[in-house]
Prior knowledge:
The chain has helices spanning about 1-5, 15-25, 30-35, 50-55, 100-110, 115-125, 130-135, 215-225, 270-280, 295-300; strands spanning about 90, 160-165, 170-180, 190, 200, 205-210, 235-245. Strands 1, 3, 4, 5 and 6 form a five-stranded mixed beta sheet that branches. Strands 2-7 form a two-stranded parallel ribbon. The protein is an alpha/beta fold. The protein is globular, with a radius of gyration of 20 Å. Mean pLDDT is about 90; it is low at about 65-80.
Amino acid sequence: TLASLLSGEQxxxxxPLASYLLDHFMNRKELARIFxxxxxxxxxxxxxxxxxxxxxxxxPDDPVSNHTDVSSQTADSNVHxxxxxxxxxxxxxxxxxxxxxxxxxxxxxxxxxxxxxxxMHRDYSFGVFRTQSExxxxxxxxxxxxxxxxxxxxxxxxMSIYCLxxxxxxxxxxxxxxxxxxxxxxxxxxxxxxxxxRNVDIGIVxxxxxxxxxxxxxxxxxxxxxxxxxxxxxxxxxxxxxFVHNPLAVFKDIRGGADAADHxxxxxxxxxxxxxLRVVAGHGQDVNDRFTSNIREYAARINIP
Length: 305
């Protein structure tokens, strides 16, 4: 969502063939204009800022091999290493420093026109509240209603929340950017310069998730924050069920088969279907937590009470 709004790009569109076709039928400026016209899309932007997504010294979900300050790393000095996710938008040069999630959202805001800025400021908030007094002061502010880190779960003792999601697929987590001085495009674009970094592909820094949504977005609230009184003061039952993405070869099943758990094909996952049937049949009490990722370890590194 961030890259789509900032520069009209996604992981799929920077691939060579897709990029070639798009350049001939619709340029990045037109794509960015389309994405920005969908005012509800901003609701999907990451919440929590640096508190959740990390800073230039590292991120909670960084690769195990890399928990050091990578703000000054270059491709030449990091052959075969991983790059940290704390720098949400990275610049190898161009005089603009690497940006955390807070800085990346500010870059996006600065790239919007006046009407787009007004609508985003009017309708959304992307921060985090750490105290009950903050929650009380903003409980009627509609801007926080789409941000679970700024709005509490309701007093609904008979309600249960079931979080069923897949993980184990390479997912966009951060980006390398550069300036684009052409007049018919946004001023920033994904930097496709090849880099000998294990988790970087054509300017996209890949992390873990379901192929579309990063694991932190999928699981942090379910596995951790909604189990704290500040965000779930009335003790709504929250169940987290994780499913490892284990697709069949394409020639066997184009949709991955019964164990696929990416963003779309999880709908055909047999274990997910069985869980959904148990819940809708009134046996939700038999559906309990199942963790198969490192989400609880990542959540423990997030300094939110």
